[in-house]
Amino acid sequence: MRPDTAALARTLSAAGLKGIEIDDVPSLGVVIHASAAHARPVLSALKASDDGFEFLVDLFGIDTTEAVDVVYHLRSFARDEEVFVKVDLDYGSDLASVWDLFPAALMPERECAEMFGLTLSGHPNPKHLLLTEGSKPFLLKQHLIRTPEEVRNR
Amino acid sequence: MDPRHLVSHAGWLTPNPPTDVEFVPASLKRAPMGVDALDTERLIVNMGPQHPSTHGVLRLLLELDGEEVVAAESVVGYLHRGIEKLAEHRRYNAVGTLMDRGDYTSGIFNELAFALAAEAIMAVEIPRRAQWLRVLLSELNRIASHLVWYGTFGLDTGAMGQFLYAVRDREQLLDILEDITGQRMMFNYVRPGGVVADITTTAEPKIRAFLATIDGYLDEHEALLGGNEIFQGRTRGVGVFERPMAAGFGLTGANLRASGLGFDVRKDRPYAAYEEMDFSVPLATEGDCYARYLVRMGELRQAVRIVRQCIDGLPEGEHTAKVPKVIRPPVGEAYAAVESPRGELGVHLISDGTENPYRMRYRPPALYALQAAEAILPGVLLADAVVILGSVDIVLGEIDR
Q: In chain A, whose CA is at the least distance from the CA of B120?
């Protein structure tokens, strides 16, 4: 279920990725924090390692009100383990596609980019998935679903 | 004239920017298989968003060379209601109402996934009776959902009669679910802490009456559709997902198990009372449409088996834990998944300690199934495209959310 954090650190270190922060969050599981520049090498190393994190369970964003956290939820069938990779991205910054590593990311990346106002690069079809082109990033906290007037008058 | 927006928030949309993106990614295109030697004019066809074979409001953009699909793109979003955003503005007990509207053929699973995630953050212990009731309702709902798939999949392959029989059986199940939950579709039955009400006294005889007939009906279904030579001809060797592709595209549930990967959330990440249940996980290795059919028919039998165990061994006790009316989980984060009829339905929940979820992510198994199906459409015949789409069992409410 939960991978050994020391073993994960060794895997990342062997791939030349030093100083990557790994947390064991009690109610969630093992979370690897990576910068935008390290995101792809970390995912690539996890997939290629003996741990075999070949399966992308899900990909989505979180607006932390300071940045957008993009979460890659990976699973290893071989070891029956799961890991979350969290990548901090500035608002409006670039989300580099990992669809060639995980084809499962094709649609969720499009959704994540449109919902959080990120630009999607390296994706074969970087259009909006659910909303009309040009619509606001709907899942950002600053985007209210009710105007202040509506909240006061309800 | 009142210039305000009627349906959406004022300022909702800005004008559409021109888009010069090619509609099918070049890297996903495959060379035509060369079904015939004729060089015919390419035709762009919009299948859906109301075509019966698209199983909801899905629009399939197809580029056809005669009867062969050269390129395909699925266009979704027609049913998008912003469930994830709305959940951030609802109390925990009210989110179930939204979840029901995701995968509307199997609402219990959506509610359960959210409740499990909330309970994981709250670290609350759920009474055993509530856990068994969750399993009972889940499996009844699974049978109802699989029957919808079975009926419509038959329609996709050109059959008709079996659809009517599937509806006949499903009616019994909806009557049972209505008896227990008060609703036929949007159940709103599972809540963080347990279930909203105990099982009614009238439900048990109805379930037993259903169990008395269903085995015979399933035999009938298998003979009627699975045993049909035309059906086998339409599904065997069609739409094959090799194991690496199935895993690569994030397939889960019966779609994954038909490709030889036996991951089942109920066995591998047990929740509710599944650890106490005796059942097996049907598996196939061919990865084609027929394999997916066989796995789901096997799952129907197993679901009936679990319902029998639940109704015979339902433990006494409370149907809900003592949770406050207004739930305020501590600050935390959790992921919980259930094995829905379409695969792994997950909820990633983040609590900031207030009465509303800070972020609720709904992991839709049908979205992953759709993109996998889309990827294998180039190179198949149009008639097979309909069968492939039916075989992966998508529900657009879940894809669009």
A: A27
